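Backbone-to-sequence.
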């Protein structure tokens, strides 16, 4: 069954080893530099140290956090598609996102075979800057390195066994590294903490060669796995009530 809540291995976003921007200067001719780096690094002759976190030097700039998130989110979506295709995962259609009350959910394994439906799927955007600033000030003492959901996505399921299968696919995927699993589906979880809402929240890093090439393999992302019944509760009115509760508790 689903695992119990697990503590974080790395709960902050660190710099790569090197300068404060996570890179090192090279005097090597661009044509002699490793192909694994993106051309923008080759042109500037500044390169990240791949997979080398500087845990004593967490990110302190929200601008840098968003620069990493923008690249990481593109790579995350590709992994999310793969997991959903193999586990019956669903996503909302664009035309229904604003209405919320009558969202249509489509299975990705069916949508990817239909050009019209595939182009109509709505992919979650990175976290709004206003909310990120609010959360940094309210909850994290003005330390943005604790923001683990700037790059985020969600997969919806009809059945619990499909959700469980997807979690297994994520954990065994060598293109990502799971840092934390917060299991709100566990019988040990106090649902009062989330007003009855339940999901499985996975914090992970995309560590593929593409992520290394653009220096974002250390950026922590969030993937929510939830049942359709809970996804349908995320109506416009439901979101307003959530924001009210969040403001009252100062989160």
């Amino acid at each position: 069954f689903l695992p119990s809540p697990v503590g974080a291995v790395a709960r902050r976003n660190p710099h790569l080893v090197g300068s404060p921007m996570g890179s090192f200067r090279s005097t090597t001719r661009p044509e002699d530099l490793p192909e694994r780096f993106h051309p923008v690094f080759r042109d500037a002759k500044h390169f990240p140290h791949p997979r080398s976190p500087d845990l004593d030097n967490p990110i302190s700039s929200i601008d840098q956090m968003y620069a990493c998130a923008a690249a990481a989110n593109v790579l995350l979506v590709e992994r999310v598609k793969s997991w959903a295709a193999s586990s019956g995962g669903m996503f909302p259609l664009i035309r229904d996102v604003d209405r919320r009350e009558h969202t249509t959910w489509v299975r990705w394994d069916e949508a990817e075979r239909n050009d019209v439906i595939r182009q109509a799927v709505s992919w979650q955007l990175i976290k709004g800057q206003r909310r990120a600033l609010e959360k940094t000030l309210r909850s994290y003492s003005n330390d943005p390195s604790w923001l683990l959901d700037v790059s985020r996505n969600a997969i919806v399921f009809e059945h619990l066994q499909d959700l469980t299968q997807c979690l297994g696919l994520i954990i065994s995927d060598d293109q990502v590294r799971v840092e934390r699993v917060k299991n709100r589906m566990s019988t040990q979880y106090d649902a009062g903490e989330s007003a009855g809402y339940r999901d499985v929240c996975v914090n992970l890093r995309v560590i593929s060669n593409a992520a290394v090439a653009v220096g974002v393999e250390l950026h922590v992302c969030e993937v929510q796995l939830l049942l359709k019944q809970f996804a349908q509760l995320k109506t416009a009115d439901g979101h307003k009530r959530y924001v009210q509760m969040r403001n009252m508790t100062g989160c």
